[in-house]
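Table S2 (continued). Query chain:
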Amino acid sequence: MEERVPQHVQNLVIRNYCERNNLQFLLSATEYAMKDCHLIFEQALLELPKISGLILYSLFQLPKDTDRRKAIYEKILHQNKTLHFAVEGLHASNQKEFEKIEIIWKVHNVLKLCIKTLDSDKC
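Corresponding output:
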């Protein structure tokens, strides 16, 4: 989402989320710093059979492409796992919860099209 949060700060947020939710923090994976790159995340998805789920720093680290996000949701659902989003304090492990995540994405995408400031002289 064109934002950069240092990895050590992301880890602090994720560790805090784990503590608040009684989750075991096993390993932190760092994505390559290339635009729209999700290679490390895709590799982590391959580890799902061995773990209970994944924690992302933010839900906006998911792919921008709706179809790619939905494919990830399907992988999570198919294996009865949970996807957590530390910054937002959310998690999803069923269809209804993933639909809520998609609504957040839709609102975010629409907000980008809204007027950012109003010129008070023209009101």
